[in-house]
Amino acid sequence: MSRILKLLLPALLALLPLSLARAQTDALTAGEVTQIVGQAAAEASAQGAPAVIAVTDRVGNVLAVFQMTGAPATIAIGSQRIPAAGLNGLENVPAGIIPTELGAIAKAVTGAYLSSSGNAFTTRTASQIVQEFFNVGERGQPGGPLYGVQFSSLPCSDLVISDPTLTIGPKRTPLGLSADPGGFPLYKNGFVVGGIGVIADGQYGLDLRIQDFDRNVDEVIAIAGQAGFAPPIDITAQRIAVDGKTLRYSDVSTRHILTNPALAPAPAGGAFIVVPGYHPGGAPIAGTNYGDPAGASGYRPDTAGLFPGLAPTPFVLVTPGNANRFTPKAGAAGVTAAGAASAQSLTAPEVQQILASALGVAYSGRAQIRKPLGSFIQVTVSVADATGDILGVARTPDGPVFGTDVSLQKARSAAFISNPLAAADLNAVGAQLVGGLIPVPALSTYVTQMQGFFPGALTNGVAYGARSIGNVHRPFFPDGAAFGIPGPLSNPYATWSPFNVGLQLDLVIANIVGSALGGSPPAAAPFCTPLAPQPFGGTRLANGLQIFAGGVPIFKNGDLVGAIGVSGDGIDQDDMIAFLGAHRAGQILGTGVGNAPVGQRANTLKAFGRSLRYVSCPFAPFLGSKEQDPCSGK
Amino acid sequence: MLGAAVALTVATSAFAADTLTATGARLAPETLTDATKAVIVRTVDLGGDLPTATYVIARDLTNQLLQRTNDGYWVPWDSQKSSLIDNKLTVQGGKLVYKVLSEDLTGALFPLSITLAYTADGAFKYGVFAVEKPR
Fold it and tell me: Which residues contact B14 (CB under 8 A, 6 or more apart)?
């Protein structure tokens, strides 16, 4: 390589991310949706495995659901971990109840939501990163980096859109995100334009053995459907490493399919179906163009100048009328460490600055999960107040869509668990028998367990980051232990599975089951959880609890006033953006806003000789700086 | 969204009287039969409370918080209880009748949540219910 080229290479690499930030101009046409379904149906016929095939766009609009004759009518949820007599949580829903098309939609949405122009992930990737050990089977390793993400974008979320007659997203997914192999993203010209989800085997589970390569029929059919709409190979999961471990994209490839997708006929051997609450018409429809300034997808660049100096222009979520849904606004009164109403609250300018500072950290940071190397971080940032009201949401242009709901979950979770009123909120929720089938304990159980670990927990105003919450919501404490006691918010390992994690699921299980059986969100959707409603009209966890890193509470002059949540890249990057976003905004504002007082943070807590973590930031995380430990001392 | 209220004939909710609490009561949801002519009226049993002020708050998925004025208009609410506008409802037989809204809601992003509230003896009591569009 010439000396000049060597000198120029760093500068050229630095330009790459900007070139990749070009505007998305593609969407699936109705004809392409038909083609994708036809390719998958032809392969399913060749495999002798009639399937239900769902196609969505990037923001979760269901574009088609094709039900082949002989396809399983319902799915059985199962992790294959626990003897039948010991089934718990969602595994307790008997086979023969949940329609297969809901599982197929969840898989398609997951393929679309987890992916971007910098990373292509599948439901098999999800399976790898949501289990109790990363990698699954490597006992003694910490849990998957996105442990708990399966319970996001839920039908009951107050952020997602449930009306199938509207094109704006993000749309809900019927069962949350899926870890069942057979859900893939769809691409055109390097842009995510949707996802395909297939179920032929009637099972809705995950992969317990990453050491081998399966011949999963759902996955074979889905990859046939994806032909012609595959991601660039360099951004697929197997080219991306997390914690030194390569991610898994698929256990099969196009060489495993029996048909030639290019010769696939129109979909045959079944019918396009209506899915109440998800797909208003039987015939395939075109997808929305993500990021179109007209706002049809629900995402577009900010046009109000909310974030001056940031380039490319951050995105906002919009209404059907193309107005910003989450323009920064003031929050309700915060809460003192004693649980009294505070005189402090977040103002709209403070919320705007927190979002801007966080996005600024993202733009300057080196992405973990994106290719090419040297790309900046792409995420969604949400701010909520201490009652759970949404005060603002903004994102980098190409953040994976799943991070929209998850960032809000993280913010609310950090605010909730840090709130001295949390114990009272949980203690008010008695035992349930969901659907007459699934026993859910009184939520005071978790309060008791937490206080057994940390006396006074959930009443004493200790500030928990989303990472700290994850520390106490794993089936082993500390996370990464091979044996021993569960974290106080988790189920014990004997009854644990990704479908039965503990408090996180118990808060939303009634809504998930009710929605899956009824096809639409329950009328109580604005609440999502059984917690008491707040004056703004929702609960403190109105889109569910989230239990992996990337959020911190926000304090103002010593009182809890809200929280920031970040999602879309590696969890250390998400943590850093939340923490530094709050810190830098506080420095700029000078109003007393910022992170929790150092002595009040959860990393001051210790149980069984083990300390909790508050945040964990990456080493040397910036693209244009050699700074090594930016979170230290703050 | 919720624009200026229009005087129309109102119908009473089919549900029994609601009770509000200081920690927030979850009230029975409503499903509209016709979003173009939405009428919502709720009755609250005071349980002996003597309200000094009454409030109504609304939120839809656009995330705007609006409050009802005493003459039926909807205006932004900044989340501060001190900013709430008294609807000046009068107690009748130990109950309050909240004429929540009567208008065309076709532009709303459902579900809506409606908060009914009053202050009595220094306490802020409230309850929330969801409003679904016709199915």
Answer: none
Q: How much is the mean pLDDT over chain A?
A: 93
Residues A40 and A182 in one domain: yes
Q: Is A533 on the interface with B (CB under 8 A)?
A: yes
Q: Are residues A496 and A355 in the same domain?
A: no
Instruction: Report the alpha-carbon distance of residue A193 to residue A399 in Å, rounded.
Output: 14
CA of B121 vs chain A CAs: smallest distance (Å): 17
Which residues of chain A neighbour B110 with C-beta distances below 8 Å? 162-163
Closest CA–CA distance from residue A428 to any residue of chain B (Å): 10
CB-nearest partner of A535 from B26, B115, B130: B115
Is B46 in CB contact (< 8 Å) with chain A?
Answer: no
Distance from CA of B10 to the nearest CA of A (A): 22
Nearest to B63 among A330, A390, A524 (CB): A390
User: In the structure, what pLDDT confidence band is assigned to residue A520 with cuts at 50, 70 and 90?
Assistant: low
ipTM value for the complex = 0.91
CATH of the domain at B96: 2.60.40
A227-231, A291-295, A335-339, B60-64 — which is least confidently predicted?
A: B60-64
* Percent of residues, chain A, with pLDDT higher than 90: 88
Closest by CA to B27, choosing from B11, B36, B16, is B16
Minimal Cα–Cα distance from B23 to chain A, Å?
7
Residue A282 DSSP code: S
Residue range A529-565, pLDDT digits in tens: 999 999 999 999 999 999 999 999 999 999 999 999 9
Domain membership of residue B11 (yes or no) is: no
> Is A23 within a domain?
no
Q: Which residue has the tokens 């595994």?
A: A91
Q: What are phi and psi of A139, to 5 degrees?
A: -60, 135
Q: How many structural domains comprise chain A?
A: 3
Instruction: Give the angle B122-B22-A441 at the CA atoms, nearest 5°.
Output: 160
d(CA A358, CA A107): 31
Q: Is the Cβ–Cβ distance between A106 and A177 less than 8 Å? A: yes
Q: The domain containing residue A398 runs over which residues? A: 302-419+549-611
pLDDT tens-place string over residues B89-118: 999 999 999 999 999 998 888 889 999 999
Q: Which tens digits make up the pLDDT trace of A65-74?
A: 999 999 999 9
Terminal Cα distance for chain B, rounded: 19
User: Residue B30 falls within a domain, yes or no?
Assistant: yes
Residue B1 has pLDDT above 50, yes or no: no
If asked whether residues A351 and A227 sit together in one domain, one would say: no
Of B62, B117, B133, the CB nearest to A535: B117
Chain-chain contact of A538 with B81 (C-beta, under 8 angstroms): no
